Structures are given as C-alpha cells and as structure tokens.
Amino acid sequence: xxxxxxxxxxxxxxxxxxxxxxxxxxxxxxxxxxxxxxxxxxxxxxxxxxxxxxxxxxxxxxxxxxxxxxxxxxxxxxxxxxxxxxxxxxxxxxxxxxxxxxxxxxxxxxxxxxxxxxxxxxxxxxxxxxxxxxxxxxxxxxxxxxxxxxxxxxxxxxxxxxxxxxxxxxxxxxxxxxxxxxxxxxxxxxxxxxxxxxxxxxxxxxxxxxxxxxxxxxxxxxxxxxxxxxxxxxxxxxxxxxxxxxxxxxxxxxxxxxxxxxxxxxxxxxxxxxxxxxxxxxxxxxxxxxxxxxxxxxxxxxxxxxxxxxxxxxxxxxxxxxxxxxxxxxxxxxxxxxxxxxxxxxxxxxxxxxxxxxxxxxxxxxxxxxxxxxxxxxxxxxxxxxxxxxxxxxxxxxxxxxxxxxxxxxxxxxxxxxxxxxxxxxxxxxxxxxxxxxxxxxxxxxxx
Length: 448
What we know:
Layout: H1 10-42, H2 45-52, H3 55-72, H4 74-81, H5 85-120, H6 128-140, H7 142-157, H8 163-185, H9 189-215, H10 230-262, H11 266-282, H12 284-302, H13 306-339, H14 348-362, H15 365-380, H16 384-404, H17 406-409, H18 411-443
C-alpha cells in the first residue's frame, strides 16, 4: 500500500511505517543469524569465528552497495511527496542502471582482492580458509542483494513498508531450510551457509520485482522512462554515493578494529561475533526508526512541510531514547542467554566476554539512537555529504581505540570502540542537523 506521510499525525505515521520495517529487519537478522547458529552448533567455534571475522569486510562492501541503493531512492520519495509521478518513474529506471553498474564493479573487485584484504586484516591462520570460502560466495551474489535492497527502497519511498516484509519472511524460512540442507545433509561447511544466503536473497529480489510491477501502477515504466537521464542520475548518485561511502567509511573503522580483535585470537573473535549478533537484535528498533526518518523527511521536504519534519524528528528522538533503555535492559538480563544460540554453554570464557561486550556497548545505545535518527533525517533532506562526514568521525573513534587501547587493555577496550565512534559522530551530526533545518527555512517557502 502506498502511504502519503505528508498528512496526518507525524508520530502515528512514523510508528505505523516503522513496524513492518522492524519486523522485516528482525527477519533479516534471523536470516543472517541462521548461518551463525547452524555454523556454530553444527561445525564448531572455529567455523563461527571464520564467518564472524568477515563481518566488517562484508559491511565494507555490501554496506557501500546497499547504502548507495538506499540513497538512489531518496529523490523518489521527494518526487512522490511533490506528487510528480513522471519523475518517480524516471528515477526508478535510472536507479536500476546505477545499481547494475555498482554491482558489476564491486563483484569484479571483490573476486580479485578478497584474499589479500583478509591477509591485511591478519585473519588468524586457523580460520583463514573458512573465512575466504564464506565471504567469496556472498560477494559473488552481490547482484541479487543489490536488486532486493533497491526494490525495497523504492517501495519504502512510496510509503509501502509492508511488502518487503512478506518476501523476507518467506526468504528467511527458505534460508534456514537451505542452511540445514547444504551443511548437515551435503556437508558443504561454511560455503553451504553462504550459498543458502545468496539463493534466498535471489528469490526475495525476484518476488519483490514481480510484486512491485504488478501492484503499483506508478512503477509500470513506459518506453520513455527507460531512456538514461543524466540529470536524474546526477541527482540520485549525488545522494546515493555519499551514503554508500558513509557505510564504507564506517566499515573501515570496523575493519581496523577487527584486525585488532584478530590479534587477540580466535576466542576473542568468537566473542565479538556472538556479542555483535545479539546487539544487532537489540538495536533493531533504533535502526528502524532511522530508516523511517529518511522516507518521512524526504516526502515532507517534497511537500515543503518543514514544520512536520521538525516535529517528526523531535518525537522520534524521544521514542528512540525509550527503545535504547529497553534494549539495554534486555541485553543485561537476557543477552548471554541469547548468545547461547551461537555458542555451547560450556564456552564460559567466551560467554563472559559477550556479557562485558553487551554491558559496555549498551550504555551507549542512546547515542546510537540519536545518531541514526539525525543521520537518516539529513539523508532524507538531501544532505548526504554531512552524513558521510559523520562516518569519518566514527572511523576516527574506532581507529583511536584499535590503535591506542586494544594493545594495552585487551578485550575490554574492544567493547568501548563503538561508543567512542557514536560519540564522535554525534559531535558532528547534532549541530549540522540544526544548521540544515535553519538553512531550509530560509530556502523554501514552508507550507505548514
């Protein structure tokens, strides 16, 4: 269902739009966790560490790709808010061209250089081959991952946050079945988990394309819509590429930190892997509110309703702080129990490290919530470059911990790296958002 977010009570619209995205994100985590659970339980801790050691590299490449796709759809949200259907269609067609080019380029680069990057990251020798076997398959399926993320972004730009959820539910269930088939039946190891993920994402992508064209007349592109348009491509890439770079810059900081963790040994890698998986679940409400703000702000900027933008951001920040408190409490009382999905109860040292990781990270969840709301709001307003600059600040925060603290304090320092990054990003984002809203008030004649 297409949803116009320029009319009605802001908080009610934001929450109703967020709920399907939250469920979808949780299923996406389930989708990713299925690999980790089955690998950890069926193959062992070393295999778990092998998959986990690729997380930051995966984020570097796939984060750039999916961030770019998300940015490509923001002008669509703005055109939709302005009721300009012709430009919505032109954006959709040209976004496919840009996403295709990104997929081809990144697939070629990762096929050539993944092994060298893992070596630079000092991936432990006992998990190196497993890490390579897993991530190279994931990168080989990049095209279908981009297609799914682009189509999901297009649907969300039009106010439909439910349809991608349905495809993810089906695909997640399929992913689990294929994991069990490839790993337990065929003995394919970590490669089997990667193939299961890629095949499941391919099905979700194809279903999303078919449904979007069938269900939404606005997405039935005409011959003239398919003509490449440099003005549309420039506008979309002007937002999409900085968004992609923002993800990648953040990921570089994670890679630097991962390299420091790798030097602590495979046990520390397994602890960070399990703790990060639990944290991904706990922080999904914060991620969801951030994603919603990009669409909400984009549509309302297109409608020139700046007052609604201010109100929506303010109310969402309050909800985000409440969600951060709840997530922290769940992490403290149930975090280690959730980690048992990935680890055996006998791994007491690793479970203790997971508890410390969740404690020191959880204190910073309010900072993370603020970061996500403001960064996505700026992206929805078209200010992608400041959002990218916030990624540089995150990189500085993580790198400082990796270079200066991990070697001295060991694993506890690893647990402080994220909070350092979140503090640094907010130092930039808060004043930039306030200045950007002031600039918009002087630039556009507000209609509210």
